[in-house]
């Protein structure tokens, strides 16, 4: 299928060159497609990159759902999520492209909406864990949305801060940070 070939070529180029230095002309050439065919499937480079991110995000979420089943308590699920993120996202080939893309100002409203949807899915994973902890009396969080947004910001910051660290160092930093976070929501 031509669309998949375009997506795979784009993913490879974004990983190698980053978002900023990858052009649609590069993608046309690497996918052996015509310019018209690429634009038939994707309105813009932003649209194509978001498609790549969305595919990766869905795979990440499916893997996390399987991993999450190993943990019975909400506390263990948050610590498990920290470890999962530290290992799975370590040295992700698209990290540079993600950073370049998300730091760009003035995304169109449609692109911004898609970016928000991706972020909301991650926040929702954490919300479900926080709600489970409330139900199991592991903690008593009154503003689940706010605490989940804070946790998401913590994970995002950890990703940036530990980007060049070894997987083992990332696991240690993620685990310790989430232990502190859990201690804070228990007060």
Automatic annotation (TrEMBL):
DNA-binding region as annotated in the record: 23-42
Listed PROSITE patterns: HTH_TETR_1, HTH_TETR_2
Keyword annotations: DNA-binding
Domain HTH tetR-type: 1-60
Matches recorded under InterPro entries: DNA-bd_HTH_TetR-type_CS (IPR023772), Homeodomain-like_sf (IPR009057), HTH-type_Tx_Regulator (IPR050624), HTH_TetR (IPR001647), Tet_transcr_reg_TetR-rel_C_sf (IPR036271), Tscrpt_reg_QacR_C (IPR013571)
Keyword tRNA-binding in annotation: no
Classification via Pfam families: TetR_C_5, TetR_N
Protein name: TetR/AcrR family transcriptional regulator
């Amino acid at each position: 299928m031509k669309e998949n070939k375009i997506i795979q070529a784009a993913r490879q180029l974004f990983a190698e060159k980053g978002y900023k230095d990858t052009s649609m002309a590069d993608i046309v050439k690497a996918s052996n497609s015509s310019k018209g065919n690429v634009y038939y499937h994707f309105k813009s480079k932003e649209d194509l990159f978001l498609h790549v991110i969305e595919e990766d995000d869905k795979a990440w979420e499916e893997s996390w759902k399987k991993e999450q089943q190993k943990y019975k308590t909400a506390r263990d699920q948050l610590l498990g999520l920290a470890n999962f993120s530290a290992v799975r996202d370590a040295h992700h080939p698209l990290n540079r492209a993600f950073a370049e893309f998300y730091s760009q100002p003035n995304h169109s409203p449609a692109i911004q909406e898609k970016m928000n949807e991706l972020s909301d899915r991650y926040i929702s994973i954490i919300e479900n864990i926080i709600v489970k902890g409330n139900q199991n009396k592991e903690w008593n969080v009154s503003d689940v949305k706010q605490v989940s947004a804070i946790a998401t910001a913590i994970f995002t910051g950890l990703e940036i801060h530990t980007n060049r660290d070894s997987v083992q160092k990332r696991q240690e930093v993620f685990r310790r940070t989430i232990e502190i976070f859990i201690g804070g929501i228990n007060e």
